[in-house]
Specification:
The structure is a single chain. With 399 residues, the protein is an alpha+beta fold. The chain folds into 2 domains: 66-147, Immunoglobulin-like (Sandwich); 158-397, paralog of FGE (formylglycine-generating enzyme) (Alpha-Beta Complex), CATH 3.90.1580. It has helices at residues 11-15, 20-26, 31-54, 202-209, 230-243, 276-284, 297-300; strands at residues 66-70, 80-86, 97-104, 109-111, 114-115, 125-133, 142-147, 158-159, 165-169, 173-176, 185-188, 193-196, 250-251, 259-260, 332-338, 347-348, 359-362, 379-381, 390-391, 395-397. The strands form 6 sheets. A 4-stranded antiparallel β-sheet has the order 4-3-6-7, with no helix packed on it. Residues 1-54 have low confidence and may be disordered.
């Protein structure tokens, strides 16, 4: 047997281990040893493979996203978009992709982030489901649902159940008051509203209440109703709301008989008396005339100078720029507000004083001088007061 000579420097070390040579001789493998070593190697490889597999972490799915749908209050034929609020998270940091699926309670389906407008129909509920995938596993779905409401009615003029015409008035900002009916102050109305094209006629009031209180009953059924109190006017507004299935804006209990529901007339969707600010905004018609529609009172108003001591058929004079008649003259018109001095400074959707002895009436009448027919003119009467120069015109907030 060939022996490998060790360097001399190692001999003292080997001398410390007397069995080294024998050990070395016994290290020469036999066939049996070779087989045993082979078996041992195989086992070792097997163990190594098992350990390696057990050290590999399992893949886990991404977390579910949270989503919402826009618009939040869609109407017929609106497109819908599914928006991710909270993104999914993949525990291993893998790249992810999102899948969008839409379904309706009517059986409709679609895919993609946006649901096309031509698929939405009034009365349906659509659900958006979004899942995230890391290429191997998918998250649970994040879902959101929304109902499709009918389109709001167009904001246009229309005819009431009692035969009157309501004119659509777009909200805006104007200068309210005048030097002698002041102070002049900036008012902003934020709610579109309708207001009667004319004063409520005797025929319309009779249709709603079954009553005919007018002193000038011989004028004609198309003359303005008069000799009605603020309370009577509020009750009439309720009868028209009831006839059209709308919210009643007034209660009829207590010493005042009728009061605004919740104290905010703009919040009621039924018929009511206009606020003083709405009345003047409508009377001015976006113009700066002294009277409603003209600087010449006789063009637009029946006053003590030209009335002959009586009321006249509504819409007998020229209309203002908003198409409204008799905002100046014929009969004073009750407004919703309590009478008091204007608050100083600019105002948004003002509702008048919290309380007072009087309610505001506007516009002048057949029996008053031209000064009260001015667009800025104001007058006040107790809410239970009835006289042949007091009538009404209705308004309604656009919901």
């Amino acid at each position: 047997m060939h022996r490998t000579l060790l360097p001399l420097a190692l001999l003292p070390i080997l001398g410390c281990f007397p069995n080294t040579r024998a050990h070395e001789d016994s290290d020469a493998p036999s066939d049996a040893d070779t087989d045993a070593d082979s078996d041992t190697d195989t086992d070792t490889d097997s163990d190594t493979d098992t350990d390696t597999d057990s050290d590999t972490a399992p893949n886990t799915p991404p977390t579910a996203p949270t989503v919402h749908i826009t618009p939040t209050a869609p109407t017929d034929l609106d497109a819908l978009t599914c928006v991710i609020d909270t993104a999914s998270v993949d525990p291993e940091g893998d790249a992810m992709t999102y899948t969008y699926a839409w379904s309706s309670d009517a059986g409709g389906t679609s895919t993609g982030e946006t649901l096309p407008a031509d698929l939405t129909t009034t009365g349906e509920t659509w659900t958006c489901s979004v899942t995230a995938s890391d290429g191997a596993l998918s998250s649970a779905a994040g879902t959101a649902s929304v109902g499709i409401a009918s389109d709001p009615p167009p904001f246009i003029d229309y005819t009431t159940a009692h035969g009157g015409t309501m004119v659509a008035i777009t909200a805006g900002t104007f200068e309210m008051g005048s030097a002698d009916w002041g102070p002049i102050h900036t008012v902003t109305l934020t709610h579109d509203f309708w207001i009667g094209q004319t004063e409520v006629t005797q025929a319309q009031y009779l249709a709603g209440t079954g009553a005919s209180p007018s002193y000038f009953s011989s004028c004609s059924s198309t003359c303005p109703v008069e000799t009605v109190s603020w309370e009577d006017a509020a009750v009439y507004a309720n009868t028209l709301s009831a006839a059209e299935g709308l919210e009643l804006c007034y209660t009829t209990t207590g010493s005042d008989l009728a009061t605004s529901l919740g104290g905010d007339p703009y919040a009621c969707e039924g018929y009511r008396l206009p606020t003083e600010a709405e009345w003047e905004y409508a009377a001015r018609g976006g113009e700066s005339y002294t009277y409603s529609g003209s600087d010449t009172v006789g063009d637009v108003a029946w006053t003590s100078e030209n009335s002959g001591g009586t009321t006249h058929t509504v819409a007998g004079k020229a209309a203002n720029a908003f198409g409204l008649y008799d905002m100046s003259g014929n009969v004073f018109e009750w407004t919703n507000d309590w009478y008091d001095a204007y608050a100083s400074g600019a105002a948004v959707d003002p509702v008048g004083a919290a309380s007072s002895l009087y309610r505001v009436s506007r516009g002048g009448s057949w029996g008053s001088t031209a000064v009260y027919a001015r667009a800025a003119g104001r007058f006040g009467n107790g809410p239970g007061y009835r006289f042949d120069y007091l009538g009404l015109r209705l308004s309604r907030t656009n919901p």
